[in-house]
Amino acid sequence: MRYELLRLPSHELSAHLRDMGYANPLMEVMEHHTCPRCGQELAGRSNSCQQCRSAEEGPSLWPTSFASADDEERSSWLEGVSEAKTLNETLWLQCMEGGFDKEQLLIACHLISDLDEHGYLSGEVAEHAAGLEVSVAEVEEVRQRLMQLEPVGVGARGPKECLLAQAKVLGESMPWGEAACRLLSEQWEAMVEGELRQAARGLSLPLAEVDEAFRMILGTFYLYPAYGFQGRDTETVMLQPDACFTVIGRGPRATVQAEVLEARRYSIGINRKNLGLLRREAEYKPGTQEKMVTWAGEVKRVASALRQRWHTLQQVCECIAEFQHEFFTAPNAGDASLLHPLTRDEVANALGVHPSTVGRAVNGKNAVLPDRRVVPLSFFFDSSAPVQALIAQLVAGEETALLSDETLRRHLQRAGWPMTRRAVSLHRESMGILPTHLRRRQRRFHPQGIQN
Length: 452
Hints:
Blueprint: H1 2-7, H2 10-23, E1 27-31, H3 50-54, H4 71-83, H5 87-97, H6 102-113, H7 125-132, H8 136-146, H9 159-170, H10 177-186, H11 188-192, H12 196-203, H13 207-220, H14 225-230, E2 243-248, E3 255-260, E4 266-270, H15 272-282, H16 288-323, H17 325-329, H18 344-351, H19 355-362, E5 366-368, E6 374-376, H20 385-396, H21 405-414, H22 421-430, H23 436-445
Parallel strand pairs: 2-5
Antiparallel strand pairs: 1-4, 2-3, 5-6
Helix pairs in contact: 5-6, 6-8, 7-8, 9-10, 10-13, 12-13, 16-19, 18-19, 21-22
């Protein structure tokens, strides 16, 4: 049970505990009303403590107008938050209503929980198949069905597969749909390089038809499924981080403290009222005493599994604070280029646990940084984050002259990241940044580009 609770993201843990409380009359699940920023328990209906409301440094975790809103506006905003759904919740509801059988729902749950912040599948299909003890074909079948849900392309392995899924679904009834599918599947490299004439020759299609399909891909499709979901009239949901990193002091002597905020939100105990009723029932109803023993044992196991979850999270966060000390304490703290390469194996060795335990602890968990940004814990294990941060900064600084992959490579080498031009291209593609030719064409045809 401890591994099952450890892998659950916070919103799924809350629902899981409530379900267990409904099924077990002796289990009392108390979910405390806490400040999402610091984890302090709150009184009444307030949604932040006074200290956090008055804090001036860093961006807020909720809309800046919230602090000055009157009661009516605040109530309206809260109603919107309660009705809003996250991407994972939306996908899960679609799976429940989409004719998935029990085994397919289990596979879908694992795939949905492994989506990264862009909406792509992080792990390999084979890893999920091995973990679930099912065939790769069964997992792949569910993943293909998942990509047809809204937002279309979610669960894809990369930009090409994501765009192709949209072309098959969104362009099914459009005159340019077939050309878009063929352009993405057969002439991807030519399209990325902006060589539409070459793509038209390879497809044996008129250039005008290929150009129309290309324009529709640029103007209609979204590169990241998660962003496509956010753009469909959804409410902004206040993130509730699972852990918090705090910097104490300044300069070389600064220390980083980690705290698991989630540990303040829940407590599990025996429901005393139901216990008294069941004791009286046991006096005249056979079998009640045995059920009470079973229910009480389950309460004990759940409470122990929760404590183990929080202990493991605390240890992982403390390791992150130690390994990534410069990221938290440097003058330009919070810059992804300061991250040191960190693997789950390194943390597992430091803690004396299996790497899969670290993976479960990190999965779907968020942390609030000292500058009040909320990031997934997996952010600290992304070895490409420093390189991609530098590439993003360089591309963002482009004005008239666009930077080629070779130019980016030279900039990265001067910054202490030697790599090949092909490696730079792979990083750029994984970030959804188009190559020079296509960025130049994008500016000419569609100023906002494919990332809209």
